[in-house]
Design goal:
- With 335 residues, the chain is α/β, with parallel strands linked by helices.
- The protein has one domain: NAD(P)-binding Rossmann-like Domain (Rossmann fold, 3-Layer(aba) Sandwich).
- It contains 13 helices and twelve strands.
- The protein has a seven-stranded parallel sheet, with helices on both faces. The protein has a three-stranded mixed sheet with strand order 7-9-11. A two-stranded parallel sheet has the order 8-12.
- Helix 1 links the parallel strand 1 and strand 2.
- Helix 1 crosses helix 8 and helix 5 packs parallel to helix 6.
- The radius of gyration is 19 Å and the shape is globular.
Length: 335
């Protein structure tokens, strides 16, 4: 039966893809926006969908930092997909700027859902809540990041604390049926030119801005698979009460650079590995490097077996995902 799904932060990189896939499978989508002025942008991003599908896409104004609008947003919906959360590329001076809206926003969405009698909620967390300060190899869905780990930054803590707040809420309110999806670095083809912060990493490699490449690893996933994980969770009751790693695997920055250099031979893509001491020096002036400097040299792996089993997702290879992003950026003249 067709359902009405409340999708928070519908203008986001991930959320636009989820909206497209929900509409394609016949559901209705009510998307939250901080400003309704972005509604036309979201509609335009739906591309080749017929008018009948676009008629099932509506918007409501709501902000994670305010109670206003959430009662109306929840009225009559069958489930909630909570994707909205701040994603800074730089570590802010005041961590509460990132952590507070992530935690309070998650709690606000869950409270509004419960008050409206909406019990089914899919939450977008992150591999950030799984991969820091953990010695497991491979990383699994049961692993939790240590917020005090040397590699953890404000964004890491925002995802840990927001996800823990969701599980704490579910424990107090057992009628709430929660599933959490934990994506890695989200690559692939954006629905439009409004791209996620993660895409900027591929853009930076393509640009040839850096003379050397820092040697750290990131878990990579295609945006299509992130959406597929959310829809798979919604469609399979067995996912309730579980969290899922949503990534194909880890790639190092040198591996990414080498793969992109092979695919774009006309671009001057750096492939020399930057020594750790040099990264530490540059990190004093480069806020993006400051976020990852403590990850230099760490080797990590993961298993996505649970997502494949329960959510029915066969992941796009990580190298293919970054290449799709690069092709998009190149075709749009964005890198």
């Amino acid at each position: 039966m067709p359902r009405t799904i409340l999708l928070t932060g519908v203008s986001g990189f991930i959320a636009k893809r989820i909206a497209y896939d929900l509409l394609t499978q016949g559901d209705s989508v009510r998307g939250t926006l901080r400003s309704l002025n972005r509604g036309d942008e979201v509609r335009a991003a739906m591309g080749d969908l017929p008018d009948e599908a676009l008629d099932r896409l509506t918007f409501v104004q709501a902000d994670l930092t305010s109670d206003a609008g959430w009662d109306a947003a929840m009225a009559g919906v069958d489930a909630v997909m909570h994707t909205a959360s701040p994603f800074p590329l730089e570590n802010p001076k005041d961590e509460s700027i990132v952590i507070k809206p992530a935690v309070e926003g998650t709690e606000r969405v869950l409270k509004a859902a419960q008050a409206a009698g909406v019990t089914r909620v899919i939450i977008t967390s992150s591999m950030e809540a799984i991969m820091h300060g953990v010695k497991s190899s491979p990383l699994s869905d049961s692993d939790w990041s240590d917020p005090s780990a040397a590699t953890a930054v404000a964004y890491t803590r925002s995802k840990i604390f927001a996800e823990k707040a969701a599980w704490a809420f579910a424990e107090k309110h057992p009628e709430m049926e929660i599933t959490v999806i934990n994506p890695g670095l989200v690559c692939g083809i954006p629905m439009d030119n409004t791209m996620g912060s993660s895409v900027s990493i591929i853009k930076r490699i393509l640009s040839g801005k850096d003379p050397m490449v820092p040697d750290f690893m990131l878990p990579v996933v295609d945006v299509e698979d992130v959406s597929a994980c959310h829809l798979g969770a919604l469609n399979n009751p067995a996912s309730i009460g579980n969290r899922y790693i949503c990534a194909d695997g880890f790639l190092s920055m040198p591996d990414m650079a080498a793969h992109l250099a092979d695919s774009f031979p006309d671009r001057k893509i750096a492939q020399r590995i930057a020594p750790k001491w040099l990264v530490s020096v540059f990190a004093l002036f480069d806020k993006q490097l400051a976020v990852v400097k403590n990850m230099i040299g760490l080797k990590m792996s993961l298993t996505n077996a649970a997502a494949t089993r329960d959510l029915g997702v066969t992941f796009v290879p990580a190298r293919e995902a970054i290449l799709r992003t690069a092709w998009f950026l190149d075709s749009q003249g964005r890198a």
